[in-house]
Amino acid sequence: MDKFFKISERGSTISTEIIGGLTTFLAMSYIIAVNPAMMEAAGIPFNAALTATCFGAAIMTVAMGLFANRPIALASGMGINAIVAYSLCLGLGVDWRVAMAVIFLEGILILLLVLCGLRQAVMDAIPVALRRAIGIGIGLFIAFIGLKGGGFIASDESTLLALGDLTSPAAIVGVVSIVVAVILTALKLKAGLLISIVVATIVGIPLGVTPLGGDFSFFPDFSAFAAPFQTTPDGMIALVEVFLQPILLLFVFSLLMSDFFDTMGTVVAVGSRAKFVDERGNVEDIKPILTVDSTAAAVGGFIGASSITSFVESVSGAAAGARTGLSNIVIGIAFLLCAFLAPLVGMVSGAATCGALVVVGYLMMTEIGEIDWSDISSAFPAFITIAGIPLTYSIANGIGFGFISYCIIMVVQGRARQVKPLMWVAAAAFLVAFIFT
Question: What are phi and psi of 161, to 5 degrees?
Fold first, then answer.
């Protein structure tokens, strides 16, 4: 096992990998409750959606561990599942099988881009400052998600955002989570983030934040599998219907852009913490990572789980010491168990994971000093990327702002020839996406 996963070679241990895997799993376990609920709104039976979510995450996370040997977990992506449920199915009235066919087709196209080397080439064309900015922006995004889950941030009609009710039970649990996470991180305890989640979950029981009970008699339902090749109520194969409606092809392009660059940002962010990104922001052995991630998108559409993608919460496991694919095996087993024990995982609230996500955000901010803020051609695109990711609640949007602004500034400064061709292509694609989708 040590030789296969290169555990000692990467300065890790089996126990550290297990702790890292459990930390990542708990940080992303909300998807087990959220995704099936969204897919049910789209028309998929709840049990079928839960089965697809758990099995899809388990299979593809283990695949990443075995084939890429990196601590990057995968599951149904937030954002894309909302598009499937509320834009495609409820908005346009598209049958859920057709929506899954859209996801399946998008995944196939991304996989072809990886096999052709285009996806890696785009990553290589990104300036170093922008690569660093993507990780920093994701750090702020993760911290924002944590603070929102802990009740520190609330929506407000007049100011958009405001301070939440710090006397609420959720905020109290969030405070406990942050305090424990910060103290244990300061003491350099590798299991600190995991312990903070467990402690906050226990504290949340008497406060009513940690839900108890649930039906543990659940059995898997595989009826959503092979969704793109199932027959719709119209009597047609779902995949065929995608090609008969031009607007669905536009959604394929839009989702492709989101998947393409969300994963790019996530891989860089996790790699910077797990130490497989060099000082120039280049990711080591990136092709197997991108291959598995792209395959996961197609698999998600095939089994009815929405697009399965690399989860940014994997950074929490990397911060806890995960360095190899062994942590993925731990995560995969946990997801598989959740196909039968989902109510148990439902006990972990957003408030309980607040501290872990805030500390991870802090750790990812440490690279901000590596950016040359005196050069506007790299500094402004970096700034707009860092700000754009959390403020638009989208990794892809922040990256798009950075790409477009970088190209504009380089043209104004008469340095257009220094911009690599694929940066022009990517910036143009983002511009089209922003205008038409």
Answer: -130, 150
Could you tell me the two tokens for 318? Answer: 């990397």
3-state SS track over 287-316:
HHHHHHHHHHHHHHHHHCCCCEEECCCHHH
pTM for the complete prediction?
Answer: 0.77
Encoded tokens for 99:
């929506």
DSSP per-residue codes, 89-135 = ITTT---HHHHHHHHHHHHHHHHHHHHTTHHHHHHHHS-HHHHHHHH
**CA quadruple 414, 418, 423, 424: dihedral sign:** positive
DSSP state of 213: -
Is the distance from CB of 73 to CB of 23 less than 8 angstroms? no
Quick check: 347 pLDDT over 90? no
From residue 31, give the alpha-carbon distance in Å to each of 26, 58, 78, 125, 138. 10, 12, 8, 33, 18
Judge contact between 294 and 107, C-beta under 8 A: yes
pLDDT in tens, 95-151: 999 999 999 999 999 999 889 888 778 877 888 888 888 878 888 988 888 899 899
pLDDT tens profile 161-171: 899 999 999 99
> What local confidence, expressed as pLDDT, does residue 216 receive?
54
End-to-end CA distance of the chain: 47
In the three-class reduction of DSSP (H, G, I as helix; E, B as strand; rest coil), residue 160 is classed as strand
- pLDDT > 90: what percent of the chain? 47
Q: Which of 388, 383, 387 is nearest to 398 (CA)?
A: 388
pLDDT of amino acid 217: 57
